[in-house]
């Protein structure tokens, strides 16, 4: 008989002519027909060719021309032998393969071969091993099943017999695998079982060690049925179930059950033990309000190592009970106006709107000015924040959630009067790591009840948490490349302290481009370069510095780096009447981005040179004018001397030699 795995030996006697013919299964005989050996053993195969057998009629048949192959590999001739003129043998030594095809061939004319017979052989590795690791399960009132480890593969058809002894009577169960079941009512609940496994194949048989079992220690029941969850007030859900049908009527047995509960959006399960499973009920306490729970149940008889399978899951939504709701209230205060009025963003949490949680109708917010007016505002359940204006006086804020007949406990926070805030914390640090922002600060010398940490990328959208520690990890809904403003506020007995603010990024990236770059006050060897900041929402990180890159045509690129608070730079030592190109790069820790390119040309002459030339030219003109006037006066004096006017001269004494009388007398 041949198994599906092909482990039973099959002997086929066929005659095959490799050149033209095929393998035959008659005329010649092979011995042994069903060889079975252990791995590593030797085997001798005999081929008998009677003188008058048809195989002797094959053309060119000659015993001296016989040769053997194993899996198409020729067997060395020193392993051949001839018993007599009609019986020929081959000796295969130390066979370690799982199977082999042994062929006897005869050489014909030239290189052609004829295959006289083909023998397909499968080999056994070892006899069956002793079954180990026996475990049994008594399925209450229905069946008794045992399992075992069969050991390594024998490559042979092997049967396993489970022998059970109860009350000095033996019963057997046969199997081809590693398990076997007694059923059809052959179940004994309270009598000791002795079990043993027999493994058997053609190479032998072996028995396992005997196992003595108390059936009640290996009994397994069916899972409970009809699990129902009933949500109740006081943060309770009630779970009911029905005991497995085969256990009904056996209430004298001790039944233990376990109830497994899990929030629908969580992977964490909680196991609740019911020591008296016959009660078929459990109240799970302290559940979360308005939360979907998944519940299933399993049971076991006392003393058994087995639990039933889990029942089908049942789901229900816990009730909303405002008596157990704890609200949390916080505020963010904007800078005051000139009159001292302040805009305040109020935020609260503790409830999340959810289907089925309609026992809470809304919120009532009370804003009380110290020694002043009181304002109460009502909000729907979906509203979790509001923006209000308050004066410079101190205020107390209170909020409750309410239903038709009750309210939650009150949450309160104060707004100090303008200029009266208590001290802030010091040493605030923030740094990103692994998708989170870690914030830490120094503890205060003044006793602190708690700390409130709020963070946002814009003023209207804050998240916040409370802690008693001096550090916190922010990890929800964070965005890359956005600047976070993080504030830490201590809450003292007297009220909130002043907030300490720090800014950080979850992750920095390359900044956006500088919007505008200009070259101003251009001279022959100098130019002033000015630029505008990268818009805040495009910075994607802290701007660490700016770098001005400039070059003349066919010249090397030069650069100068300035700090992030400088938005201009004066270039000097430029060449006159030369074309320059430049751009400015803004840099963060993650990289930099360049502005658009600006082109300018220096002047041929500097303005001071032109001014000097103008002054010198003006002075030259003035000098020439002055010289012309002087020359004119001098020439006039020479060419046109002045003659005294008698009219304006006075009577005087003329010299004698020049007087008219003397002159006339001589004549």
UniProtKB/TrEMBL annotation:
Could you tell me which Pfam families the record lists for this protein? Answer: fn3, Lep_receptor_Ig
Its transmembrane ranges are: 612-635
Cell compartments where the protein resides? Membrane
Coiled coil regions, renumbered to chain = none
Query: Gene3D superfamilies per the record?
Result: Immunoglobulins (2.60.40.10)
Q: Which UniProt keywords apply?
A: Glycoprotein, Membrane, Receptor, Repeat, Signal, Transmembrane, Transmembrane helix
Q: Which InterPro entries match?
A: FN3_dom, FN3_sf, Ig-like_fold, IgC2-like_lig-bd, Type1_Cytokine_Rcpt_Type2
Q: Where is the Fibronectin type-III domain?
A: 223-321, 510-606
Superkingdom of origin:
Eukaryota
Lipid bilayer topology: Single-pass type I membrane protein
* A GO cellular component entry from the record: plasma membrane
Where does the record locate the signal sequence feature?
1-21
Record-stated family: Belongs to the type I cytokine receptor family. Type 2 subfamily.
Q: What is this protein called?
A: Interleukin-6 receptor subunit beta-like
Q: Which organism is it from?
A: Lepisosteus oculatus (Spotted gar)
């Amino acid at each position: 008989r041949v198994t599906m795995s092909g482990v039973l030996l099959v002997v086929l006697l066929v005659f095959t002519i490799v050149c033209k013919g095929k393998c035959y299964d008659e005329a010649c005989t092979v011995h042994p027909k069903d060889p079975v050996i252990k791995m590593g053993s030797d085997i001798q195969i005999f081929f008998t060719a009677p003188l008058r057998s048809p195989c002797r009629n094959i053309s060119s048949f000659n015993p001296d021309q016989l040769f053997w192959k194993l899996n198409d590999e020729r067997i060395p001739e020193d392993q051949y032998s001839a018993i007599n003129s009609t019986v020929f043998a081959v000796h295969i030594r130390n066979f370690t393969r799982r199977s082999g095809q042994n062929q006897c061939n005869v050489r014909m004319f030239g290189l052609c071969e004829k295959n006289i017979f083909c023998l397909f052989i499968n080999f056994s590795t070892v006899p069956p091993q002793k079954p180990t690791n026996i475990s049994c399960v008594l399925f209450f009132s229905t069946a008794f099943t045992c399992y075992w480890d069969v050991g390594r593969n024998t490559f042979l058809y092997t049967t396993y017999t489970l022998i059970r002894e109860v009350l000095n009577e033996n019963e057997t169960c046969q199997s081809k695998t590693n398990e076997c079941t007694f059923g059809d009512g052959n179940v004994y609940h309270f009598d000791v079982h002795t079990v043993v496994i027999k493994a058997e194949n053609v190479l032998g048989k072996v028995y396992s060690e005997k196992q003595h079992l108390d059936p009640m220690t290996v009994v397994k029941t069916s899972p409970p049925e009809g699990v129902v969850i009933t949500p109740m007030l006081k943060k309770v859900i009630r779970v009911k179930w029905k005991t497995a049908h085969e256990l009904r009527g056996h209430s004298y047995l001790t039944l233990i059950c376990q109830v497994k509960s899990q929030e629908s959006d969580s992977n964490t399960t909680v196991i609740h033990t019911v020591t008296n499973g016959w009660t078929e009920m459990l109240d799970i306490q302290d559940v979360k309000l308005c939360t979907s729970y998944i519940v299933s149940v399993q049971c076991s008889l006392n003393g058994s190592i087995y639990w039933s399978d889990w029942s089908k899951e049942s789901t229900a939504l816990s009730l909303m009970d405002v008596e157990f709701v704890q609200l949390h209230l916080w505020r963010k205060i904007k800078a005051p106006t000139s009159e001292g009025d302040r805009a305040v963003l109020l935020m609260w949490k503790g409830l999340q709107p959810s289907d089925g949680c309609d026992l809470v109708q809304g919120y009532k917010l009370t804003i009380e000015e110290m020694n002043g007016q009181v304002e109460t505002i009502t909000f729907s359940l979906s509203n979790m924040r509001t923006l209000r204006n308050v004066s410079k006086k101190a205020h107390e804020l209170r909020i409750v959630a309410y239903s038709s007949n009750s309210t939650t406990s009150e949450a309160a926070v104060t707004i100090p009067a303008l200029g009266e805030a208590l001290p802030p914390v010091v040493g605030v640090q923030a740094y990103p790591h692994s998708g989170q922002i870690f914030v830490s600060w120094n503890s205060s010398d003044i006793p602190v009840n708690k700390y409130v940490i709020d963070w946002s990328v814009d003023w209207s959208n804050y998240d916040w948490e409370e802690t008693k520690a001096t550090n916190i990890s922010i990890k929800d809904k964070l965005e890359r490349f956005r600047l976070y403003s993080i504030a830490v506020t201590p809450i003292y007995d007297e009220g909130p302290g002043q907030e300490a603010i720090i800014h950080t990024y979850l992750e920095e990236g390359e900044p956006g481009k500088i919007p505008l770059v200009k070259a101003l006050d251009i001279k022959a060897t100098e130019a002033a370069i000015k630029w505008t900041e990268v818009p805040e929402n495009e910075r994607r990180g802290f701007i660490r510095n700016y770098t001005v890159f400039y070059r003349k045509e066919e010249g090397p690129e030069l650069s100068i780096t300035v700090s992030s608070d400088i938005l201009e730079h004066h270039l000097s030592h430029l060449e006159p009447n030369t074309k320059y190109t430049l751009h400015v790069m803004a840099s963060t820790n993650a990289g930099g981005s360049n502005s658009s390119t600006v082109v300018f040309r220096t002047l041929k002459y500097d303005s001071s040179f032109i001014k000097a030339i103008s002054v010198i030219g003006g002075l030259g003109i003035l000098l020439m004018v002055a010289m012309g006037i002087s020359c004119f006066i001098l020439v006039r004096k020479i060419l046109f001397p002045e003659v005294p006017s008698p009219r304006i001269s006075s009577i005087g004494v003329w010299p004698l030699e020049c007087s008219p009388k003397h002159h006339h007398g001589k004549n």
